[in-house]
Amino acid sequence: MACCRMILAALGWLALTAAVSAAESEAAALYGDLVTAQDAAAAVRLAEQGEAGLPFLLQGLDSGGRVAALCAWALEQHPQPAASASLRALLWQSDQVAGYWAARALGRIPDPDNIAALARLLPEERLGFWELAADGIPRLTDLTVRGQRMAAPAPDWMPNLRVAYAAMESLGQLGGDHAAATLLGALENDQYLIRYGAVRGLEQIRHADALAVLTAVSASDPVLLVRVAARRAVNRLLGHEPAAPAAPALPTAIAFIKTADRTESNLGFRDSYFFPKTPWYAWGENLYTLTPPQPDGVLKNLTNLENGLVQGPQVSYDGRRILFSMRPQADSGGFHLHEINIDGSGLRQLTSGNCNDVDPTYLPDGRILFSSDRTGYQEFYHQERSRALYVLDADGGHIEQVTFNPNQDYEPYVLRDGRVLYSSYRFYAQDGSPGPVRGENYGLSRIETVLRFILPDGSGDQLFYGAMRGSFFSPLRPMPFSDQRSGWHRRGYHVGVSVSQAAEMPDGRIICTTPAGLTLVDLASGPLDAELPLFPEVVNLAGGEEVYIHNYDAQNPVGRFTSPHPVDNDWILVSHAPWHDLRGSAYGIYLFHLPTREMRLVYSDPAFSSVHPVAIAPRLVPRVIPSTLPKKRPETGRIYCNSVFNSDLPFDHAQVKYVRVIEGIQMGLSINANAAWRTRALGTTPLHPDGSFYVEVPADVPLRFELLDEDGRVLVHETEFNYVRPGEMKGCIGCHEPRHTAPGNALPLATALPPVPTLRQRGDLIYMGQPRNPYSTLYRD
Q1: 3-class DSSP state of 659
Q2: What is the DSSP letter of 44?
Q3: Among residues 157, 249, 584, 608, which one has the fewest Cβ atoms lying within 10 Å of its Cβ?
């Protein structure tokens, strides 16, 4: 009997040895897939194996880079205490995605050392952070090996802003007095992202001081995002748990585009990147419908192109037709507007010509608004063909240009009140002041894609949201000559933002994409306190390529979102690609719940990205706004200003005596960079004592203004372009004033007199661009 027991024991040991060996072999194979292919599924399966996978996960954490990020991400889902030391070491590396997921993982592993390491990411210096993997950031050389406690950071080492944000939330998960004290202190930090993380952390801690402090924050924090999070936290602490999300009322079908190569994080010309690139219209290979919109729905190819491209689907108000742009042959011709019935019948072409017509949308009166590069000129910075907005008559017989920005206008969207929201790229150039790098003299460059709105006839053009908001989305790296801050450019003097893909929610908020990915914009508090990023930790600078010094797409720890489409006030359809998959075919279509960030898969094709989902259903027809422009169009319009002193620009008001009006002149299609642009001095008008002026100007041309002193020296050069339509009278309260500010002089002195003519005349001064000193040489026409 004893012999039998010995035999059975030996067999059991052999079986255990074989099992361990098999587990180790499988773990080794998974780690090989993780290292060679950066396979996210392999990382998760390693973490699921427990002790067998742990040695390989630790090796991956110590290797750094994408592999370390994937291992930390897997451990956040399947935490293992033995990995704590290696995870703590990642908190101080230059790879912010690895650090972000390491902080998240440590929040799942209760340990005093983990709390101390996360708390150390809140520096004593309130602005002591760095952002992105920027040049000049020191790297630690004394990080520990596996199993050893991490050495204290060097005194001049700064934690990464977005890793510190993740640490705040993780401290809330871990709890305890040390964590609570850190989070309460973080509410005093100057970085709103840190305060936001602290609020979300305190929401999870039942600390005696949390309720009172969060109540105060909900009323007084200067950033809307933090106030809203604090209100939610207060409700949770009071026991008011939010109800489970109700299922949205889905349409019977959706239309969308499939594309084999979609790396950009948003649609539109800018592609979430502040400089222009080769014109890109966010196209795909074919237009599809999915009925019903769920993974097993019936898929139908409406266009059946073999070598063509489609772009910008828009469903008619009655839900029966789809308007879109198509290029039947990808290697020839341009994009032109087409319309098709939802069953795939009745395809017809609406526009033609040597141009690209894209981003079409129906106007409520039956006409069609779209973006086109048929302008015949190039934008004045990188010389791509400029795009403006055009209106096409319902019968297709007449096309009229309605915007006149010399850069790019695109993605028009009709609001329920009849106004047209659109994205507008604006390049404001260097202002000539000294830059932060010795020997450079570029000055401040504002490079922005913002939201503007017009009436359907192009009149009433004004800013909606986005100008000067680059510092909100990338808040680091102070510049010595400006209160703007930028963290994305190594030289530091560029200020940029990209806001596009705007759509109106039923409650009037705007869902769009920004440098923080999906963002709600609520202008109830004004355009300087309007942003509600759904994932504020996202760095959505995108492109899927090396841009200057970084692959910014790889710095995004959440994933890419593109082409949001509202379903109701809580749910949207959106295309999403996970953070760990930068392939062009990685986007699937999801239902996204805005309050909870829950995502439900609607459709995914592993071989293609599925983008730009739109509901196929009848929808409310917006208000029709008749044109107020005269039928017999004059060649001029009028502009008045209540007071140039209503301004946040620093200048001596007492010195301002005159206002000069200048016109931007496009020179047609040129092959010379920065040489297709001229500036004409149209005229000068005296400034009235109350700061008002009133001028007659040419219609349908881009205009700028300058404030001059008594000797004609420029005190302020306004870099914003404006225009008026024929016969339009446009007024403003001042320069940079809040839109709803009441003017101090309701009847400005200037309007008591006829407008001063500032019109083209022979002999006008024209500034000609030069290779080294643009727009500085004068000559007479």
Answers
A1: strand
A2: H
A3: 249
